[in-house]
Amino acid sequence: MLRPQDTSSRERVRLDGLWAFAFDPADRGRAEEWWRGELPGAVEMPVPASYNDVPATREAHDHVGDVWYQRHVRVPARWDGRRVVLRFDAAAHRAVVWWNDVEVGRHEGGYTPFECDVTAHVRSGETARVTVVVDNRLHLTSIPPGIVDVLPDGRRRQRYFHDFFNYAGLHRTVWLYTTPHEYVEDITVTTEVTGADARVRYRVDVAGGRVAEVVLRDADGTERARAAAAEGTLEVADAKLWRPGHGHLHHLEVRTAGADPDEYALPVGLRDVRVDGDRFLINGEPFRFRGFGKHEDGAVRGKGHDDVLMVHDFALLRWIGANSFRTSHYPYAEEVLEYADRHGVVIIDETPAVGLNFEIAHTLVPGDPEHIFAAVDDTTRAAHLRAIRELVARDKNHPSVVMWSIANEPDSARPEARPYFEPLVAAARAADPSRPVCFAQVQLPPDRDVISDLFDVICLNRYNGWYVDTGDLATAERELEAELREWVRGHGKPIIVTEYGADAVAGVRSVTAGTWTEDYQVELLETFHRVFDRIDSVVGEHVWNFADFATGYGVNRVDGNKKGVFTRDRRPKSAAFALRRRWRGTDFPE
Length: 590
Fold this sequence. Notes:
Layout (H helix, E strand, L loop, with lengths): L10 E4 L2 E8 L4 H4 L10 E5 L10 H4 L4 E9 L8 E6 L5 E6 L2 E7 L5 E4 L9 E9 L10 E5 L5 E5 L13 E6 L3 E12 L2 E11 L3 E7 L5 E5 L3 E6 L13 E7 L6 E6 L4 E4 L2 E4 L2 E2 L2 E5 L13 H14 L3 E3 L7 H10 L2 E5 L7 H7 L4 H4 L5 H18 L5 E8 L8 H15 L5 E6 L15 E4 L11 H19 L3 E5 L18 H16 L4 E7 L29 H11 L6
Parallel strand pairs: 23-24, 23-30, 24-25, 25-26, 26-27, 27-28, 28-29, 29-30
Antiparallel strand pairs: 1-12, 2-3, 2-4, 4-9, 5-8, 5-12, 6-7, 6-9, 10-11, 13-14, 14-17, 15-16, 15-18, 18-19, 20-21, 21-22
């Protein structure tokens, strides 16, 4: 799915801002057809943003069920006779959309975009009413999964199995855009590098028409290759490559034939990615991942995308010496990937499949785990498959994305895990053969894991010294090293430790480095680093987490998860300076 852009044939309008908004705790709106008029009792709500913390009430924060958004849209008169599309970059977790009184689209999946072709319903120059109902409920067959309890007083309570708050709403931009009726529907690009030369394989899908020309231009506009077919290979001699730290981008310009041609310009990074034994190679050179698991999370805005926070986070990544991160545990806003493309930051891109773990679910959500996950079946896998395909369809052309992570911390010890995951791995590879596939495995030794051999890279979330052998770093170091060496002997693949860390409350210090102190967080990270440096197959270290973030687990978390090396408002803890010394060799700003 192509991102909206302005070209000679296309125009886009952001529909961000203040929308009319109404909570619907009794699920009245659908039965009463609220989309047919003004929303009852509406207040104003910013878009993009999570709605939970904006009204400053407990009811809003804990709401489970439908919420309604509405605004009026004037379609420019100059769009008369054009194709018109309404696009939502994200609606967590499912949505139905009406244009005036007509349903024009619905979608399930809170982190990938969907579009509604409203051409047949538009009258250019006139104002239309756009209404969206967004449902935040998670069920056993959704991705991610959850359970909704109905309490004796009629209130609903959401239980879920992941350790971050279930923020909801219209988290990303809403667009109205136009194209010709014969238009570029999709572009798929893969790139290869051989020495100083590069090869761009491309495919252009055109709705109702055909391709007139395809031109690859360098960043300065210089033409590097040209073709006149919908599918082909462009050879680029002496190519300027995209590489970590240097986000050099070319542009693939596509123009359709006909009296009303469409034009689209796709940013392209010339680079290739592959796994060779226990090495991870970018452009044929070994790459070592330094960085974090992150979250889209901020005070008040929740998971609402914010360009200010995004740019600041990338500045902190640069300051600390990180070169990569994982989009834990869902696809991030496309603006984030575009920024990474331009600045040479490497990304492991992850689906929202988090919480598919019997044992962890039992510790976070009391109850019988066998009963809880009885419904994790073909229906769940269908939702999981859709999440993988939508992730790849959206992000396949980003050079910053070097690997797909199709799940975080599933229960990979149960025999049922293998028949569940085998077709998902195959589907991910079929959707994009050019990138490795991984999943983040938690706290299971190789002799108990039944699925890691299916994947290209071993990604391990390890909490020795925190959840395991709490406070005992000597034991943590010994057992971590022994286990990692087992993975090396058993698989011979690259290993990335995709999570490791400890909670630390900012400002809490101790000469004895007790748990929950900044000092213990530093010592734990240094313990892991000593082990990593002794094992050549460890090609990546992603600290959990970049910054403190909101969670939903009462007595298990005090004001959220505190494993960040930055606070939620991005102030550095001692661990941030320790990582800067390791990754950059200095404490001080440039």
